[in-house]
Task: structure prediction
Amino acid sequence: MLAVSQSVDRCTPPAGVDPAPKSVRVRRMGRGETLFHAGEPRRLYRVERGALCHYLRWDDGHHEVIEFAFPGDIIGLGHLDVHTSTAQAVAKTIVSPVSEEEFEQLLETDGQLAARFRAAADREFDFLRMRALATAGKLPAAGRVRKGMQAELADHLSICTRHQAIKPFRRFSEAFAPLLGGGKG
Result:
């Protein structure tokens, strides 16, 4: 995360991006209100005021904090079509949506955001691997082999993404879905 003094510059969309009217863009949240849950369609947000706690909720009920997002931070990062984590306001918070176009431009100029985006991909690979392993025992033999291959592939790609730029996982998922058992990850 950037220090608050540095993050103010990131609150402004990049040149050439036409922001929507403020009345459409802003969402006001009370303390404890959830911005998104795991499983909901992915959307990107910029924290304008306040703070969010971004965390994973495990099957056994415990929470693992990923990060706290402060003014200027982008939250909701990832490559899958749905969130695999949850974000909740820890104070009165205002967020605004970030378009894909704006996000792509920010990625080109903000190395810290790019690193957080890669970390989100790592978390998603771990999520897919854990899900594949959890369901493998409930499948017939062919299904267990396919799920095992998915887990191994996700694990391998997770290691690769830590050392090089990654392409959006969505494209990978769509390209290999027929080979790995059908639907999107």
Notes: Residues 1-11, 16-21, 159-170 have pLDDT under 50 and may be disordered.
